[in-house]
Amino acid sequence: MRQKWPIQTGSVGLGAKRAMTRPRFTGCFGVEPPDSTLPRSASPARQRHRGERIEGTTKSGRSRTVSLDEETLKILRAHRTKQNAEKLELGEAWRGGSEGHMFSTAWGEPIHPDTASSLVPRLIQRHNEPKEGVHPDPFPHARLHDLRHVHATILLLAGVPVHVVAARLGHADPSITLSVYAHVVSEQLAEAADVFAREIEKAG
């Protein structure tokens, strides 16, 4: 079931899917789980640079594991099952190797990051189009990378510790997260003052 989160990222309001967890998008198509059971995490390892595919760790040189919720894993398992069926049907024409990428072309080759980037505006446009005379609540313009900011904002507003959010984003130092999302942290500080006042009032 799709659930929307009205989040303000600067001047942009975006409805995002609850289960959305996204590594830096240039590497998200390199997820290679060992089998259809799928682990509770995924490590981005494939990136594009100047049109060439690069295999390795993140730009900081460190490997990064991002945990996934059960709903997302369920979707990925179903996708993997379908992909395995397509692989068997293609036989020797499959170009993805024995394991293959979680997200690939119909032939098993890695998807270029620009493919996903160009898909987001089309999906937003499709959503905003009237259907049977009914005008939906429009989504504003957004980039694929904006989902990364939405994800971080949701976690911070939900009270997830900054160092945990920083680890999911791949920030080497939580101070980077604090700097980028200072406006969100400021909201939490204001809320903390209200929480403290309520607790004191209860104690009295």
Structural class: alpha+beta
The overall strand count is: 6
Helical fraction equals: 40-55%
Q: How would you write the strand order of the largest sheet?
A: 1-2
Quaternary organization: single chain
Mean pLDDT: 75
Distance between the amino and carboxyl termini: 44 Å
Poorly predicted tracts of residues: 1-30, 32-37
Number of domains: 2
* Principal-axis shape: extended
The major pleated sheet works out as: 2 strands, antiparallel
Element order: H for helix, E for strand: EEEEEEHHHHHH
Strand coverage percent: 5-15%
Radius of gyration: 20 Å
Number of helices: 6
Describe this structure in words.
Residues 1-194 form the Tyr recombinase domain. This is Tyr recombinase domain-containing protein. Residues 57-66 have a biased composition (Polar residues). Keywords: DNA recombination. The chain is α+β, with helices and mostly antiparallel strands and 204 residues long. It folds into two domains: 1-17 and 140-204, no CATH class; 23-111, no CATH class. It has helices at residues 70-90, 113-128, 146-157, 162-169, 174-180, 182-203; strands spanning 4-9, 12-17, 41-42, 46-49, 52-55, 66-67. Strands 1-2 form a two-stranded antiparallel sheet. It has a two-stranded antiparallel sheet with strand order 3-6. It is extended. The N and C termini lie far apart (44 Å).
List keywords for this structure.
alpha+beta; 12% strand; disordered N terminus; two-stranded antiparallel sheet; 204 residues
